[in-house]
Design brief:
This protein has about 180 residues and is mainly α. The chain has five helices and two strands. About 15% of the residues are buried.
Length: about 180
């Protein structure tokens, strides 16, 4: 039940999936909203602090998620060969974009040599800082890769709904209910 099998996702993978989905959507919305904040807005400093803190926790969770994924079998994909290939490439692209978004966010936040406080629990040190135009270049990468990520995530969700509603595959049920995949 905890670990993946060739027939379904385990509870750990399911939790990683849904926490990551909620965090990505929430961070995108928060990031978009905070770009319009004025200097005198009460959220001007607090919103980026939340964004950075959640982003760093998501980075750590994503690294753990990748380690978990490599240590566990992946359930057998459903659909035609081209659909399976598209699903595999889509998942790879989702992980790559998540890592690019988070790495570029880290580079924005540490450009001036200060670490990132994660909810005042601990600080992530500034290992890379003061590169030429670091904040600007990382900011552009962060914005456009976040847009690409949210669009790809939307496509991912639509594909899951298509497989569930039209093709009548159990793909959506497998990522919602680990017990479903263990039925004989």
């Amino acid at each position: 039940m905890w670990r993946n099998t060739r027939s379904g996702w385990g509870i750990v993978s399911i939790i990683f999936h849904w926490l990551g989905a909620v965090a990505v959507i929430g961070l995108f919305g928060l990031g978009w909203w905070m770009t319009g904040l004025g200097y005198f807005d009460p959220w001007y400093n607090l919103a980026p602090w939340w964004h950075r803190s959640i982003g760093m926790l998501l980075l750590f969770a994503t690294l753990l998620r990748l380690a978990w994924r490599f240590a566990n079998p992946t359930p057998v994909a459903r659909g035609r060969r081209l659909e399976r290939l598209a699903a595999h490439l889509g998942h790879v692209a989702l992980y790559v974009l998540m890592l690019v978004v988070m790495a570029s966010g880290y580079l924005i936040s540490t450009a001036r040599g200060r670490g990132i406080s994660v909810f005042d629990w601990f600080e992530v040190p500034a290992l890379v800082s003061q590169l030429p135009n670091q904040e600007s270049i990382a900011g552009e990468i962060h914005w456009y890769s976040a847009l690409a990520l949210i669009l790809l995530a939307a496509g991912h969700a639509l594909a899951a709904l298509k497989h569930h509603l039209i093709d009548r595959h159990d793909i959506l049920v497998r990522i919602l209910n680990p017990a479903h995949s263990r039925r004989p």
